[in-house]
Structure to design on (373 residues):
């Protein structure tokens, strides 16, 4: 790995400025060598891989052991289960987790309020990780309000529209305004945009080119059929019962397309109102009082390096790396961050982070006022 041969650093203490992630600072190669030796002495690192995409990363973990001779003990499964376990253990003075790769929701609700996570920047010591020029938009990206704890390493364009390819041509939908055309009235099936599984609706609501007016018209004018089961919604589009599906069914649509159904869970062109990047579960977090502090620090730097990121996106399949030097040809086009397009990075937008719950509540109210339950 390139950074193993390069000079590395330990962050020199700096004051935290709200809204700005403090920069890490490089130092000497001897410090890296000392970190590696200390990590080897610990011999293992305890990592949670929570969520569908992170669970796929278990196939990549042997690469860390091959490089450093340090065992990765990984634990998969839902985030809620792990959070309950971690909180219960800490109540009796047990500390068993070093790092977490997964979604941000549980961390925002439970881990950060309980002071379980530590800031990431002081842990970043590898030059290729510290160097912000190598990252999308020239910076490190965080998904928490203080821009300190939830380091987002990957993202992909967010898709809210699914089509039956025999009934709709992609070029017929080039903007969200097109979805208010009377010809689509009664022909849209959707998860409710006010539910957590459809959180992609929040950036739409906050986008002044779409906003509350669009949601009110969509709810009142389009006679949308709502489903609670994403698979059912995708199947109805795939079977031609509805030509268009929206909000939270595209993942199931992609699976049905692989089975040969005429359905597409994404549009090949950007929407006129702009495109949004979604982080999904491509985040890494570090725990306070880790059982293997040096191995944890080494693991974090390895995970954010170019080589590991290439392995991560290949195994994860549905997220691109926010590193600009990673070859993203290993994932399908619809998941790539394209250099010729401009995206709203909603997950690092303070307006999105701080208003997400409020906006979801407002969207639910709009749906209720339109007669949906």
């Amino acid at each position: 790995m390139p950074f193993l041969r390069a000079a590395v650093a330990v962050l020199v203490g700096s004051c935290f400025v709200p809204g700005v992630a403090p920069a890490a600072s490089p130092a000497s190669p001897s410090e890296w060598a000392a970190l590696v030796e200390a990590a080897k002495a610990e011999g293992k690192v305890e990592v949670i891989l929570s969520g569908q995409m992170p669970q796929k990363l278990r196939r990549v973990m042997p690469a860390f052991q091959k490089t450093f001779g340090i065992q990765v003990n990984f634990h998969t499964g839902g985030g809620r289960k792990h959070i309950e376990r971690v909180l219960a253990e800490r109540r009796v003075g047990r500390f068993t987790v070093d790092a977490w790769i997964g979604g941000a929701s549980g961390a925002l609700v439970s881990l950060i309020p309980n002071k379980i996570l530590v800031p990431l920047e002081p842990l970043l010591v590898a030059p290729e990780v510290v160097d912000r020029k190598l990252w999308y938009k020239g910076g490190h990206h965080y998904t928490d309000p203080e821009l300190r704890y939830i380091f987002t390493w990957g993202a992909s364009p967010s898709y809210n529209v699914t089509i039956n390819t025999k009934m709709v041509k992609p070029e017929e939908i080039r903007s969200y305004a097109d979805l208010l055309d009377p010809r689509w009235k009664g022909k849209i099936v959707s998860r409710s945009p006010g539910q957590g599984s459809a959180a992609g609706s929040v950036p739409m609501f906050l986008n002044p080119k779409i906003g509350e007016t669009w949601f009110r018209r969509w709810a009142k004018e389009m006679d949308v059929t709502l489903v609670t089961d994403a698979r059912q919604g995708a199947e109805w589009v795939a079977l031609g019962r509805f030509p268009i599906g929206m909000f939270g069914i595209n993942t199931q649509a992609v699976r049905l397309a692989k089975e040969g159904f005429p359905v597409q869970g994404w549009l090949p062109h950007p929407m006129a109102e702009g495109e949004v990047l979604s982080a999904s579960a491509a985040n890494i977090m570090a725990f306070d009082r880790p059982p293997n502090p040096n191995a944890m620090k080494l693991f974090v730097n390895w995970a954010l390096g170019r080589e590991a990121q290439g392995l991560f996106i290949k195994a994860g399949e549905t997220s691109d790396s926010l590193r600009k030097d990673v070859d993203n040809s290993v994932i399908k086009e619809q998941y790539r961050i394209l250099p010729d397009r401009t995206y709203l990075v909603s997950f690092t937008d303070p307006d999105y982070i701080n208003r997400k719950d409020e906006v979801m509540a407002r969207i639910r109210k709009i749906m209720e006022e339109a007669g949906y339950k």
